[in-house]
Amino acid sequence: MSFVIFNQSLFMKILERYSILLHIIGWIVFITVPLLSLPVSNVFSRPNFTVFVLPQIIVTLFLIIIFYLNLNFFTPNLLIKQNTTSFFLYLFAGFIILSLINMAIFEFYLKDALFKIGVVNSPQPPPPSPDDFRPSPNFGKNIPPPFGRNIPPPTFFSFRFFAIGISYILVIFASSILALINERIRSYDEKQQIILEKTAVELAVLKLQVSPHFLFNTLNNIRWLARQKSEKTEDAVVKLSQLLRYMLYQTSTDKVSLAQEIEHLNNYISLQKMRLTEKDLIEFICYGNTKSIYIEPLLFIPFVENAFKYGLHNQEKSLIKIGIAVSEGILHFYAENKVFGANISVENSDSGIGIQNVERRLALHYPEKHELLIQNIDSIFKVDLKIKLS
């Protein structure tokens, strides 16, 4: 399905980009195809040019006008808006005008031109003159007319009327199809723009959700240090200012370097360690080329927050494992901790806010390019996230 949509959008973009060139080629083909029936050497000879080329140019000019009227007015404003009665009335009026032009060309120009070159007989032969009784130099010779046979005026007019009618139908059909394609392109662009604007607004809201949630947890930690009258309180405030500076300024762009994100996690982990005891062990491991990788900001911090929130205990030993690895175009993040007290889940109204936020952002930024596995088995909470890098 996605392949079909991609090909369709690509076809629309090609039509839009090369529309002027395609129009020029189309009209050249439209004008020259009827002339292919004439010998190449005689196309611009006076009889053929007078009888065929010149009238064809006149009719084609009118068909070009009808084409662009239908392309820019009739089909977009009438047919697409389902005003079919007015649409067909305009087209019928155009056909009547074209028929009148064809009749005028035939009566006031073609009939006399055909007679002069000997293709048709004059409907009212001129009175005899003395020269008519003299023997002609070509007497007795069978000299065919320029087109090989006499064509009576009604038959020639009927043929022209039929050919012009077919041309008119083809012009209307082609311009209507092109107008429908243009409308499809416009509608597609509008839908894409709406999707992009909706996604941008949604991402902005999600980023705003990250900051208060993160700030609330961090202030709780500093409050705990202040209650303990710890000397680390001042350092904690400094760390918090660094974290807020990163969130306010570094994440204003769409992408941040993975190295900056790792430094941000390091600052947060250092802030959390200020209230830990010797029985608490934190492992944070990074390996691979992290300098040239750019990702969406603040993707990992909700998982790290939950690890510290539910993975520490006042009396029992605690172990939190956090890791980031880059290998073969895959970014791998994992977090593991033991859950003390009530088990948590993604649907939990407190802890699930940040996780649901990340899930939504991953779906928007990395559609079909990420795998997120969250497990809570035997009070061991595990997060395994893999992102396919561009």
UniProtKB/TrEMBL annotation:
Residues 202-278 form the Signal transduction histidine kinase internal region domain. Keywords: Membrane, Transmembrane, Transmembrane helix. It comes from the Bacteria. InterPro entries: Bact_2-comp_sensor_kinase, Sig_transdc_His_kin_internal. The chain crosses the membrane at residues 20-40, 52-75, 87-106, 159-181. The keyword Metal-binding does not apply. Pfam families: His_kinase. This is Signal transduction histidine kinase internal region domain-containing protein. It comes from Emticicia aquatica.
